[in-house]
Each structure stands twice: as structure tokens, then as C-alpha cells.
Automatic annotation (TrEMBL):
GO MF, one annotated term: MHC class II protein binding
SMART domains, sorted: IG (SM00409), IGc2 (SM00408)
Residues annotated as domain Ig-like: 11-123, 143-217, 319-392
Domain of life: Eukaryota
Listed CDD domains: Ig
Protein name: Ig-like domain-containing protein
Pfam family, one: V-set
GO cellular component term of the entry, any: external side of plasma membrane
Membrane-spanning residues: 426-446
Length: 482
């Protein structure tokens, strides 16, 4: 036994230093591994096979009689049975490879395969390296220090390590430790949504490659995923300010603030708008702390912050509300033109504007017509312009939002057109008044004519009427003289 241990110690040393005769095999912890052992000569005579591990003794062996033996450390109690096997179906092909199921970190090391065929012994040396990726803490909270470690047992000199996150090479913003003086590669970062996903450690040495993976799930505020995320809303509309924690993560002491303009490092809270509601009508779960504004005003723009305590640590997220409106101005009363201007409280992410006219058919079906690009639109009031005019604004990732302006009446758009309407109304009223007066005069003249006509039919009566009228006039004159 002492001699065997000495021999494997020498083999281990030689393999580690020269790496010229050993076969490298990588396996992820918990997976299966196949240690190759093949010969070029075929024999019908049963072979004696011995698989051993340096400093651990026999793993598995088979005598020429067919009897098999397992090392004590490789036998499992219960229904699991043994973790190692050497398929007999492959022996006739000269394949005596060893299969190990559910490999552990302790399985890493130097293995030896010895096959006795026709009084000839064939030996192979295999190095099994176990790759393991661990995350600490296992479920990090947003803002905590998190370490992702890649262990390779045994760790070889000159090993190349590459970290892959969600199928893309990981670009570290923190610290990665990996050199000849350590036996692991460690990524240390602050836990953010950027770290969420599948981490893979890809290793290679002398053309042999292996990989192991682990999933990182960062808990905290998951929506919005980053600070200073912009939320767009039109004046007069309602808007939801998102603040959603990880599923099942219920924060204590949730608070909403509107931050005063100024420093981004230590902003002071200000007054929330009157229409602000700390609970969104869409919130159905205790971990959804989204808020809402029922009717957005232009001065509601600015930065908002939600926060809550999770596992003794306060989680915060800031977001910016960008408010959009359309200004309407009359350019010229004589020409009758109207200028619409699309205004946003922050245009830093806006790359383009688009004006769209919205019309409805008798059935109420909407139709859209793109008019022009740019944040300004000039309209002639001679056209049929009443209806809805929408300004859409775009960013690099597509549409950011839109705002709509309603034009009700053409007469209200131009001072000239309103003045003409007033003049026409006055003229109609004046002509109507003159016509009424003329009709009254004609009616009075007709009545006088009819009365005279009746009197002329009785001459005596006419004489009496004239006499009475003359007497009245004389009396009036006499009274005046007195």
C-alpha cells in the first residue's frame, strides 16, 4: 500500500509539472464524467482492469474471471448504488472508460487505468478536474456585495478562465481575481439587475475546455430596473410611477418623495402634487408599491423616489417624470395660420417628432394620417382642421409617448375670420331693423288711406268733421292768448 501511494504521488507530480502524457477531463459538479481508457488491440480473452485514484486507492476493478470490486468510498448505501461503472458492452471494442455519476469536488484528481491483455499491460493517466460556480450570498439583495466564484479542482497552472453572463462575455465593472497564486476565479460586484441571469465559467487548458454555470437572482426593486428611468405622460392624462419589488418581497415603511431640483447625490424631498396617490389602482400585490398621478400638470415634471426597507436595508429607486404638452399660437390674422408646438419638460432622450392627424368616420373608426416631422406644425385655417392632432416623440429604442391637441371650431382659430363673422352679423341685424321700420310705415300709410276713403263716401259728415276741427283750433288759439 505504501508503494502504491508512492507511485501515485510520483505520477501526480509528473502530470502536474509536465502535462504531456495525461488526458485532461473537465466536468461540472453534479454532472457525469467519462474517464477515457482505450486500447488499439482487440482480444477475445477477458481482460483484467483496474481503475485507481492517486492517494485514494482502487476505484473499481474487474478480474479476468469477471468478478468486480468497488472501493469503499465509491459505494453508496440505499437505493443510489454505486456512482462508478465500466460498461462491459464496450470491452470488445477496446474501450475500458470509467463513468462517474454525480461528480463532487472531492472526485477531482489523478486517475490511473491499467488493462492487462495477453500478458501485456496498457496504462492510461487521466486528470479529472471538477468545475464549480458558487454565488455568495446565494440570493443577494440589491446593493449588497456579491461574489461569483469559479473553482476548478485541482486547479492547473496556466488555466484560462472566461466569465459569460447570459450568453455574452461579461465586462466587469468591479474586481476579478484570477492568477497563478490562487486556485479560483472570483467576480466581486455590487448586486444590481445587471448581474441577474445565468453565469458561466468557461475554462480551457491545452485545447481542453470545460464549463460550469449558476443562476444569480438579485432581489429588490425590479421595476424600474435602473435609477433615473424616464416616465412620459401628457398634460391632463393619468400616469403610473412604477415601484415593484421582487415577487414575495414585501417592503416595510414604503415612502414616496418628489425630489427638489439640484444635487443628485443627496437630493432633498419636496412636496408631492395634489393629484398624487401613493397607491396605484393597478397594484394588486403587497410587493407592488407603484403610485399614480390622476391628472398630470406640466409643473408635475421632475424626479420622484420610492423606497422601502427589506431585510434591514433600505431599497430606493429614483425615476423622472417627463411631461408633454402642445402649445397653440396664431401666427397671422391676415393669412389665417396656426402654429402647434410640441413641448417636453426634458428632451434629452428624444430623437424625432411626428405629427399625426386623427379622424373618425361615421361608424367611429379611427384613421391616422402622418403629416410631417419636427416638433412644430403650421396649419392654414382655410382647411378643414377641426379634430385631433397628435404629436408622437421617439427615442433610440422607438416611441416614447404622445400628446394630443383638440381643435373644435375653425372660427376660433383666426381673428380675421371672427371679425368677418361679426361684420356679417351686424349687417344682417341692421337690414332686418330697417325692413321692420319700413313695414310699419307702409302699414300706417295704408290705414290712413283706408280711413280717408271711408270718409269721402259721406260729404255731409266730412263737413261736420272739418267744422268741429276748426272750432277746436280756434278755442286752442283763444286759450293760448289769454
Amino acid at each position: 500500500m505504501i508503494l502504491e501511494c508512492f507511485i501515485f504521488t510520483v505520477i501526480t507530480f509528473l502530470v502536474t509539472e509536465t502535462q504531456c502524457q495525461a488526458t485532461e477531463v473537465f466536468a461540472e459538479e453534479g454532472s457525469g464524467a467519462v474517464l477515457p481508457c482505450k486500447t488499439n488491440s482487440l482480444s477475445l480473452i477477458p481482460a483484467a482492469i483496474v481503475w485507481s485514484k492517486a492517494n485514494k486507492g482502487t476505484v473499481w476493478r474487474k478480474q479476468k474471471s469477471g468478478l468486480q470490486y468497488w472501493g469503499a468510498s465509491w459505494l453508496k448505501s440505499g437505493s443510489e448504488g454505486t456512482r462508478v461503472r465500466c460498461p462491459h458492452s464496450q470491452f470488445e471494442r477496446g474501450d475500458y472508460s470509467l463513468q462517474i455519476n454525480r461528480v463532487t469536488e472531492e472526485d477531482g484528481g489523478v486517475y490511473s487505468c491499467s488493462v492487462e491483455l495477453d500478458n501485456r499491460v496498457v496504462e492510461e493517466v487521466v486528470i479529472l478536474r471538477i468545475i464549480k460556480v458558487t454565488v455568495s450570498p446565494s440570493v443577494p439583495i440589491w446593493g449588497q456585495d456579491v461574489s461569483v466564484t469559479c473553482d476548478v479542482t485541482p486547479w492547473p497552472y496556466g488555466l484560462s478562465v472566461q466569465w459569460i453572463l447570459n450568453n455574452s462575455p461579461f465586462e466587469s465593472q468591479g474586481q476579478i481575481i484570477s492568477d497563478r497564486d490562487v486556485t479560483k476565479s472570483v467576480v466581486r460586484q455590487k448586486a444590481t439587475a445587471r448581474l441577474t441571469g445565468n453565469w458561466s465559467c468557461a475554462v480551457s487548458i491545452r485545447g481542453k475546455m470545460g464549463r460550469a454555470s449558476a443562476t444569480v437572482s438579485v432581489k429588490g426593486i425590479i421595476q424600474p430596473s435602473d435609477d433615473n428611468t424616464k416616465v412620459y405622460a401628457a398634460v391632463g392624462s393619468s400616469v403610473v410611477l412604477p415601484c415593484v419589488f421582487s415577487t414575495g418581497l414585501i417592503p416595510s415603511s414604503p415612502v414616496w418623495d418628489k425630489l427638489k431640483p439640484g444635487s443628485h447625490f443627496n437630493p432633498a424631498p419636496g412636496l408631492l402634487p395634489r393629484s398624487f396617490s401613493p397607491v396605484s389602482p393597478l397594484s394588486q400585490f403587497a410587493w407592488d408599491r407603484s403610485a399614480s398621478l390622476k391628472e398630470v400638470a406640466f409643473d408635475n415634471e421632475g424626479r420622484y423616489r420610492c423606497s422601502g426597507i427589506v431585510q434591514g436595508q433600505r431599497q430606493t429607486r429614483t425615476m423622472q417624470l417627463v411631461v408633454a404638452k402642445i402649445e397653440s399660437n396664431i401666427l397671422s390674422k391676415k393669412k389665417g395660420s396656426l402654429m402647434l408646438t410640441c413641448q417636453l419638460s426634458d428632451t434629452s432622450e428624444v430623437t424625432d417628432y411626428e405629427w399625426v392627424r386623427v379622424t373618425y368616420d361615421p361608424n367611429g373608426t379611427q384613421s391616422f394620417e402622418t403629416i410631417q416631422k419636427g416638433n412644430k406644425l403650421s396649419i392654414s385655417v382655410s382647411e378643414e382642421i377641426q379634430g385631433e392632432w397628435t404629436c408622437r416623440f421617439y427615442g433610440r429604442g422607438g416611441i416614447l409617448g404622445n400628446v394630443t391637441h383638440h381643435i373644435q371650431l375653425m372660427s376660433g382659430l383666426s381673428g380675421q375670420k371672427s371679425t368677418r363673422s361679426s361684420y356679417n352679423t351686424a349687417a344682417v341685424v341692421g337690414l332686418s331693423f330697417l325692413l321692420v321700420v319700413l313695414l310699419l310705415i307702409l302699414a300706417q300709410m295704408y290705414k290712413n288711406h283706408q280711413r280717408r276713403k271711408r270718409i269721402l263716401q259721406y260729404p255731409a259728415l266730412e263737413t261736420i268733421v272739418h267744422s268741429i276741427s276748426n272750432e277746436r283750433e280756434e278755442k286752442e288759439r283763444s286759450r293760448i292768448k289769454k
